[in-house]
From TrEMBL:
GO molecular function: ligase activity, forming carbon-nitrogen bonds
Reactions performed catalytically: L-cysteine + L-glutamate + ATP = gamma-L-glutamyl-L-cysteine + ADP + phosphate + H(+)
Name of the protein in its database record: Glutamate--cysteine ligase
Keywords: Ligase
Ligase recorded as keyword: yes
Species per Swiss-Prot/TrEMBL record: Gordonia aquimaris
Keyword Protein biosynthesis: no
Length: 502
């Protein structure tokens, strides 16, 4: 939810007006689709790669640093912005062509930018960490005082708690660190949504023609479980070993506006995989309008239908703001650039890190795989139930490389075997269709292949490193700090995580 919102109180009239404006915006989307008002209708857009990378901040002792304002002042780069927690910042990578060797150029630019930011942050005795969940975060770091200073974050926090009416409970049963260990469990309550800030992600944007949106969104949904299994990098929170990709359950629980009674009634959660394959982007915006009350009902006086009647492209501010507070793992995005409207799929299931090359490999695998599946002879999503795709996300996040996922015409299969036997080739075909060079395809897909062969993701490495330190006599807090220090060292060295030693 990147829109700046001033501190204020909302009235019942605000909510009624906002609901009406969102509904009018949804009607406007349908009208624009019918009248061909999107710039990419009838032709595929230029392939562009866009991403956002969320980062954590630590001090010299590897503890969370509540210093994002100080660090951003030191970095002094508009590409870097605040995030929800004072221990977070985010870098927005401007969209770049996704052809020939441009992905390698983007990798080099991202590494240069992060190195420069780290050098400047270090002058303040703080450091950047690209990781799915900072392992040294504890319950004390979720206190309300550590929300970032921007008023929109506190306003969002208050609105979620007003809707929920009680403290947020985090309750997650973890995966045992080894066969000789029992599974651990995290049970804690918090009076802020800051556990959401613990979930630092890589967000990938793909601009698509309106008529192709449903196919790309369905494809992205169908591979979510494989994505998190292959890229897990968030195994610890509050001193507890949880899932391989603990961002998934933590985010789901940290922004849940439903008390127990509404859960029992089947009210849909705010963090949502969805409930069906779609036929058009309109389906998703209609669901937003139908199922989710406003969290931030900030209204303008602009009627979007009047804008279309006047020959202008509507900004749809209310629809976009509302959409930004429905946390789909694959989110629809409506945007207007230079008075021309377009649509994007925003993929949100991946964690940040561990390295720049791992990040680029995760991006290439995603972009290539969805393109390859969309252009296959028979859509994958026509061969599997939506519930199977949703279950795969939970299974892949929990078990990582050891998960058993369902795949059409295969049955239950581990993600490493599925990737090596089928998906690498599909992703390569998709990347080739975009025009990505053989050199770039080989560079990034070999990283995915390496993880599948070695079974070493960022999460697997973290778990092994902590287990080794505990076996050597360290307690959990010491092991987490020592592991994180080693992680940061190898992150800066830049070799892909499947080659890291413990």
């Amino acid at each position: 939810m990147g829109t700046d919102v001033a501190e204020r109180e909302f009235t019942g009239d605000d909510r009624v007006r906002f609901r009406r404006q969102v509904s009018r915006g949804t009607e406007a989307i349908a009208r624009m689709l019918a009248d061909g008002l999107f710039t990419d209708q009838g032709r595929p857009p230029e392939p562009l790669l866009g991403m956002e990378v969320e980062l954590n901040l630590v001090d010299e002792d590897m503890n969370p640093a509540m210093a994002n304002a100080t660090v951003l002042d030191a970095i002094a780069d508009p590409d870097y912005q605040t995030e929800l927690g004072q221990f977070n910042i985010e870098i927005n990578v401007s969209p770049r062509p996704f052809v020939t060797d441009d992905t390698i150029s983007l990798e080099q630019a991202l590494r240069t930018s992060l190195n420069r930011a780290e050098e400047r942050a270090s002058r303040t005795d703080n450091h950047l960490v690209m990781i799915g969940m900072l392992p040294t975060l504890t319950h004390e770091h979720f206190a309300h005082q550590w929300i970032s200073a921007n008023p929109r974050y506190d306003l969002l926090n208050r609105q979620i708690f007003a809707a929920r009416g009680e403290d947020i409970e985090i309750d997650i049963a973890g995966v045992p660190l080894s066969e000789r260990h029992a599974g651990e469990r995290l049970r804690t309550t918090t009076d802020s949504i800051l556990p959401e800030a613990a979930c630092t992600s890589l967000q990938l944007h793909l601009r698509v023609a309106p008529e192709d949106f449903a196919a790309y969104w369905n494809a992205a949904q169908s591979i979510a479980g494989v994505q998190v299994a292959l890229a897990g990098n968030a195994p610890f929170l509050a001193g507890t070993a949880l899932w391989h990709e603990s961002r998934i359950p933590v985010f789901e629980q940290a922004t849940d506006t439903r008390p127990l009674e509404l859960k029992n009634q089947g009210v849909r959660p705010r963090v949502w995989f969805g409930e069906r394959w779609i036929n058009t982007i309109f389906d998703l915006f209609e669901e937003n309008t139908r199922y989710f009350p406003a969290l931030l009902p900030v209204c303008s006086d602009v009627d979007p239908i009047d804008e279309i009647d006047a020959g202008r492209i509507p900004a749809l501010d209310e629809l976009r703001l509302h959409n930004g507070t429905v946390y789909r793992w694959n989110r629809p995005v409506y945007d207007v650039v230079d008075d021309r409207a377009h649509l994007r799929v925003e993929n949100r299931v991946l964690p940040a890190g561990p390295t720049v090359v791992d990040t680029m490999a995760n991006a290439a695998f995603y972009y290539g795989l969805v393109r390859g599946l969309v252009e296959s002879d028979r859509p994958l999503w026509s061969q599997m139930s939506f519930n199977a795709a949703a279950e795969n996300l939970q299974l892949g996040a929990r078990g990582g490389m050891e998960a058993q996922l369902y795949w059409p015409n295969v049955g239950w299969v581990r993600p490493d075997e599925l990737t090596l036997r089928r998906l690498i080739d599909v992703a390569d075909t998709g990347l080739r269709a975009y025009g990505v060079s053989g050199k770039a395809r080989s560079r990034y897909l070999s990283v995915i292949e390496g993880r599948a062969i070695t079974h070493q993701t960022g999460s697997a490495w973290q778990r092994r490193a902590v287990l080794a330190r505990e076996d050597a006599g360290e307690d959990r807090a010491q092991a987490l700090r020592g592991m994180l220090r080693d992680y940061v060292t190898q992150m800066h060295e830049g070799e892909p995580v499947h080659t890291w030693s413990v």
